[in-house]
Amino acid sequence: MAARKRDRQRTMRVGGGVLAAVVLAMATWWWFGKGTAEQPPQQGGGLPVEVMAAVAQPLAETLTVAGQVQARTGAELRSEVTARVAAVTFTDGANVKQGQALLVLDDSVQRATLAQAQANHQLAKANVERYSRLVELGASSRLQVDTAEAEAKLQRANVQMAQANLAKYQIAAPFDGVAGIAQVNVGELVQPGELLVAVTDNAKLKVTFKVPEAQATSLRLGAPVKVSGDGVEVDGVIDALDGRVDPATRTLEGKVALDNDDGKLVAGQFVRVRVPVREVSEAVVIPDQALIPQGAKMFVFVITAGENGATMASRTTVDVGLRTADKVQIIKGVEVGQRVVTAGQQKLQAPFMPVTPLSPTTIDVAPQAVEELR
Fold it and tell me: What is the rounded CA–CA span in Å between residue 44 and residue 112?
């Protein structure tokens, strides 16, 4: 009886173990087999990685510094005399032409002075003619003629002086440009040196910038630069460089010449200036994200052919040259046309592993999403 009971318990234990093994096998299939089956098969059986080919292209290392926009031609028109404003003949912010009258000061006294000088000049010329005829008739001396001619020259100089003084009461635009806001009103009394209006030529601009002395020797005249502001980017060239480094700031000042016919920039605006400090005319270039830094060394995974036609990723040491925000020059380790891994390197644990190369991922953003971000 006791033996039969022990056999029954042994049978139950064996059956329970078998049942547990079956359940474990089914769970394992469900967890690993089904999940794996639902994933898309990978070509070649290698880990999926994104790759791009190394290309040969010009590359420039740039430095972005702050700059200030200035009008290449600009003037503050100030009064040279004490007078009342008789008229303001322009609209604030309007385009003006060279010689166009912008303000008129009360010039009634100066006009009278000019008329008096002109009358005296006419009388002096008449005296010269009169004395010249009398000399021919022997009724006058040559000294009287010379005195009359000197008086005529003096009166002509007085006319010219009166005309110059009168011109100071007409405030005209010295060049084509844009008038600022009038600083005076009709009827106001202005004093010598008082600002009346500023005129700026915004069609031609200059941007001044400063670079640290470490990059001072890398700049060159005529180098192309990018000038960017709020949503605006303009191409220009380095037009001038200071002859010395500022000893106080240890910087070198440069100037960029810009054509601004479309009015994208305004004088006085602060901008960012991207200047090239080093250039290579034909560099082996790969994406910056392909680099793997390890201590003082740099590595990339290069796509190569393995045994049995398998595609392999081989970790390779590289020497790096110029770098930009998204590109890097490879001096040694990668040749033009070779493909390098740009994404998925974290999955490559060994120096030589099978992979499935994929094109770089692109993300499409719906137009409505862009509007919402704005």
Answer: 102
Domains of the chain: 44-58+282-358 (2.40.420.20), 63-71+200-280 (2.40.30.170), 80-105+169-193 (2.40.50.100), 107-168 (1.10.287.470)
C-alpha 168/C-alpha 315 separation (Å) is 79
Specify whether the CB–CB gap between 96 and 102 falls below 8 A. yes
Which two tokens mark 79? Answer: 């009064």
Structure tokens that stand for 287 in this block: 């994406």
Tens-digit pLDDT string for the chain (374 aa): 445 545 555 555 545 554 555 445 454 444 444 443 333 434 446 889 999 999 988 887 788 899 999 888 889 999 999 999 999 999 998 999 999 999 999 999 999 999 999 999 999 999 999 888 888 888 778 888 889 899 999 999 999 999 999 999 999 999 988 899 999 999 999 999 999 999 988 888 889 999 988 888 888 888 888 898 888 888 888 989 998 999 999 999 999 988 877 778 888 889 999 888 777 778 889 998 888 898 889 999 999 887 777 888 889 999 988 887 788 888 998 999 899 999 988 888 888 888 888 887 654 444 444 444 44
Query: Residue 260 has which token pair?
Result: 């601004």
Cβ pair 84, 98 in contact under 8 A: no
| Rounded Cα distance, 301 and 314, in Å | 5
Q: What would the DSSP string read from start to end of 151-176? A: HHHHHHHHHHHHHHHHHTTEEE-SSS
Distances (CA, A) of 149 to 7, 113, 146, 153: 156, 22, 5, 6
Alpha-carbon gap, residue 332 to 338, rounded angstroms:
13
Q: How far is CA 351 from CA 291, 313, 317, 368, in A?
A: 14, 8, 11, 44
Quote the pTM value: 0.53
Decide: 190 and 105 in contact? Cβ < 8 Å. Answer: yes
Single out the residue of 202, 199, 215 nearest to residue 253, CA to CA: 215
CA-angle at 133, arms to 132 and 139, nearest 5°: 95
